[in-house]
Design a protein that fits this description.
homodimer; mainly alpha; two-stranded antiparallel ribbon; 11 helices
């Protein structure tokens, strides 16, 4: 967690008071294997980090443009008064940090605990972090899964700007895809019925 | 549904007695948009169909090899007596048909109803279709999400064998990815807590 990150309201990666992930190291090793997320992918994420990080605001513009152009997605950030710009802004700061954290993840217990917290914030107590009143209580889970597609595919042109060749681009793109799938698999935990996750 | 397909035990795509999907056409249009699954992607799936279909047994060999080499995945097909080969075989026939159906999907109400049924069979009543006793009652949902990665990435070399150029390969691969994500988003419905899907 960088000094910059710690200034982001509601950001709790590394907070020792977070409950632990339901997965221990052995359980997470299984999930990583199911996602094909290898050590070489982790190396590719590290290569992607300095390429992606200077473009994070532009990436967020792309993603927020996508959300903003789809009323059923924007609804999660809206109250009866319309889209809540301060809520959108607070989430945006954490979303940008999530990109950094994913590219530099050590996939250890603190990272796992924060993935559980990210999932929880989508599933229940969604608005309490940012003290929002009147927005929907839950991000519908079908959209959380669906967004694997745009979050994966829109990264490619940003990676391409810094990739040294097609082969490195493919490696970084595949690693990003696997890390996104793995993250969403973890975020699913608070949504699933007891014992079914 | 082809005559061939109707001979697959437990295969119910097109069965009018299936309950309808929780999504109507408007709701599914939203989910498709969230997955970026456009009409051009549907066209690309149709182009992929004649390339992929003659290779389905080889694709299933790849996927079953992956499942079989990971005890935590094989566990879903195992009883206290070990892996249940007739269960594995029954699911395999439907899995192959799922590839055909995804490539040729009209994404209409019958297709949607059968996605709900596929989700239900992973989440509850998992073993009843094939009258299996003693296997786990549920495929853990985290692995259903995780398998988006291998099911997507392993398709590429099979598509490459029949693609006329790199551009068509990319189109077909992206369309397959989006269709898999969309399917898993639908399969999630029976796993989610009431009202959270």
């Amino acid at each position: 967690m960088s000094a910059h990150a710690s200034a982001i309201p509601g950001y709790r990666y590394g907070d020792p008071s977070l409950p632990p992930s339901p997965l221990d190291a052995a359980g997470f090793a299984e999930l990583r294997a199911a996602c094909l997320l290898t050590d070489d992918d982790v190396a590719a994420l590290r290569e992607a980090a300095p390429i992606v990080e200077p473009q994070i605001e532009e990436i967020l513009d792309t993603w927020y443009g996508f959300v903003g152009s789809h009323p059923f997605l924007l609804a999660s950030f809206s109250t009866p008064a319309g889209p809540d710009t301060s809520y959108l802004g607070a989430v945006r700061a954490r979303f940008g940090q999530w990109i950094r954290d994913t590219l530099r993840a050590d996939f250890g217990p603190e990272w796992l605990a924060y993935q559980q917290e990210i999932g929880r914030r989508h599933a229940s107590g969604k608005n309490e972090t940012d003290a929002v009143a009147g927005a929907p209580e839950v991000v519908p889970f079908r959209f959380v899964v669906a967004l694997i597609a745009p979050i994966t595919l829109t990264m490619r042109p940003f990676l391409a700007r810094g990739a040294r060749d097609e082969q490195q681009l493919e490696r970084m793109q595949a690693a990003w895809f696997k890390a996104v799938v793995c993250s969403v698999a973890l975020w699913a935990a608070p949504y699933a019925k007891e014992g079914w996750w």
